[in-house]
Amino acid sequence: MPRISGVNIPDNKNIEISLTYIHGIGRPMSRAILDELKIDQQKKAGDLTADEVNKLKHLIDDRYKIEGSLRQEVTLNVRRLKEIGCWRGDRHKKGLPVRGQQTRTNSRTVRGNVRRSAGSGRKLPPAPK
Description:
It is elongated and about 70 Å long. It is mainly α and 129 residues long. A hairpin with a 2-residue loop joins β1 and β2. It folds into 2 domains: 62 residues, Helicase, Ruva Protein, domain 3; 35 residues. α4 crosses α5. A two-stranded antiparallel ribbon has the order 1-2.
């Protein structure tokens, strides 16, 4: 298993998909990195040479904000929104959708599968006699 930026990427998948296991790298960025290094996107991650793995490591570490530093930046951005008391910060505090989604229905995932009204829950089993 090649290890890039502290993440073990799977051997048996194409390198384009394997790079997406690194937080902060998606499919488009993965394609751009591989095109720049002239590595075949269909090549399996386990088939990479040591030289190709080193090139990937250096390029990703030098150019992109990934893993811990990216997570830290996002956390700081959310904390700043909460501190200044803006609308988005309030939504983060309350654990509600931030980007304008409706909440009357379809926000159970964000709210933690909360059922608040009498008609929205499951029917209770009949009481034993």
